[in-house]
Amino acid sequence: MTEKSIIFAENIECMSRKNFFFTILLCFLCHYGVAQNINIETGYYTIDDRYDTLPHNAIDTIINKYKPEVDQKVAKKIGESELEMSAYMPESLLSNFSTDVLLKKGADFLGEKVDLSILNIGGIRATMPKGDVTLGNIFEIYPFDNIVDILYIKGSYLKELFDFFAKKGMQPIGNARLKVRDKKIEEVLIGGELLDETKIYKVATLNYLRTGGDGMGILNNAEKVINTRRQFRDMIQDYISDKYNLGEKINSTLDNRVIIY
Which of 74, 92, 118 marks a domain boundary? Predict the structure, then answer.
């Protein structure tokens, strides 16, 4: 049986609570294969208060059918955190945790050391709670289906990227340290060593950023790109679950990887 629905939305702030839940529901259904043969029809519609009073029978039918199973998956505990972690710039517990996991998982995939990891602060959308961490928490924090890429890129392009960060706003980095003065890069260390503009570095990042997201189009100058075909969110989930299976909690620290004078 094919079930059809039309989702009306312009952004989360303007969506009704019910339509927002329905959107999240569809994300889970697609990601975990709970539902089959759902057609989503799209189009352009004027969004105004007329939809606040209309019945949502079609949406209610789909929500009520799948909500119990989705709720069960969302509530599944996958690990524990030593402390609450928030994300903000120039440096935060959650952004450091995220880039450090990306660095490790990139190296695990490659089978050798990765020099640097780069994310965007806009891709981290919620706070990691202290204590139990559920699958639902992970989807709230990392809602986008970004794929991890490993780039082989010359240091001169990384210098340009860091200059861009210094002028426009810092972004999360792993295994690097930046010193910024008057919106200019004063020093760049990668793996404890000064940036070499002639060297080829291995960088773990997101396909969204490599293709120009958040103004990082310079990353598209990579000499080689390896698509891991793995979502960053899944890597985070695996890391937390692996820790939990070993009886360990996740943690993070502030280590002055970004210093602004």
Answer: 74
Q: What global pTM score does this model have? A: 0.80
SS3 track for the chain: CCEEECCCCCCHHHCCHHHHHHHHHHHHHHHHCCCCCEEECCCCCCCCHHHHCCCCHHHHHHHHHHHHHHHHHHCCEEEEECCCECCCCCCCHHHHHHHHHHHHHHHHHHCCCCCEEECCHHHCCCCECCEEEEHHHHHHHCCCCCEEEEEEEEHHHHHHHHHHHHHHCCCCEECEEEEEECCEEEEEEECCEECCCCCEEEEEEEHHHHCCHHHCHHHHHCCEEEEEEEEHHHHHHHHHHHHHHCCCCECCCCCCCEEEC
- Give the model confidence (pLDDT) of 53-103 as tens digits: 766 787 788 888 888 888 888 999 999 999 999 999 999 999 999 999 999
Q: Do 141 and 209 belong to one domain?
A: yes
Q: Are residues 221 and 255 in the same domain?
A: yes
Same domain, residue pair 152 and 172: yes
